[in-house]
Amino acid sequence: MNVQITCDNCNTTIDVADPTPGQKVACPRCGDVNVLRGAGPGTASVGTPARRDAAPAREDRASVAGYPPATGPEVDVLRVRPALFRAHPLLVTGLTLIVVGGAVGAVIAATTALIPVAVAAAVAALVALGVLVVMKIKCLGEGLVITTKRTIDREGLLRKTTSEVLHADIRNVQVVQGVWERLWRVGTLSISSAADDVAEVRMRHIPSPDRVRAIIDLYRNL
To answer: How many domains in the chain?
Structure first.
């Protein structure tokens, strides 16, 4: 026996086969869990009868925009890592020049028997290269994974820390950009599921943060 219930979160009509009292049914559109309180025809979630005149399901904005649909199994939509050069253009450029200049200077000094100069140039190049490598590793160890159901913040390569928020629970998505960051199109993205300023997900130096926010909004209940 099949019955139809209405999701108590987004009013989507859900077909349930062989319903039983207390059965939990997840809404395929918003992910909200509905609990059946009856087993007969017309049973609805949380005691609300399914209405034949309920409003039609809303258009899947994600599909229209060319992204995976909000309904169905959870799949990855976008992976974002902090930008290195765009976040620190002057520092990265300076370190790169030191690496190249130090290496060239070390070779020239060595061929002219200026050993102390060659050693100093080589050390400077190695130190600058080490700083660049550490910065790159830090960027590779951080990132956002945006799926059709949630946004996950991951940090660390060896020791990982994750924080996530369901798109259905998001109350605020904030993008903060200084003047320099706007020029280079990077910024800080903060996501919270409460009315206060506490953000469950916050990442700095996100490239094209407005685009990332727009993609997340496609999967929110707006």
So the answer is: 3
Confidence of residue 38 (pLDDT cuts 50, 70, 90): low
Report the 3 state secondary structure along 170-209: CCEEEEECCHHHHHHCEEEEEEECCCCCCCCEEEEEEECH
Rounded-to-10 torsion of CA 108, 113, 115, 120: -20
Structure-block tokens of residue 138: 């830090």
Owning domain of residue 214: 76-81+142-218
Residue range 66-86, pLDDT digits in tens: 999 988 889 999 999 999 999
172 lies in some domain = yes
Task: Report the C-alpha gap between 35 and 25 in whole angstroms.
Answer: 6
Q: Which residues pair with 33 in a beta bridge?
A: 26
pTM: 0.67
Question: In this structure, which long-range contacts are made by residues 34-40, counting pairs with CB atoms below 8 Å and at least 24 apart in sequence?
Answer: 34/5, 34/7, 34/8, 36/5, 40/3
Mean pLDDT of the chain: 84
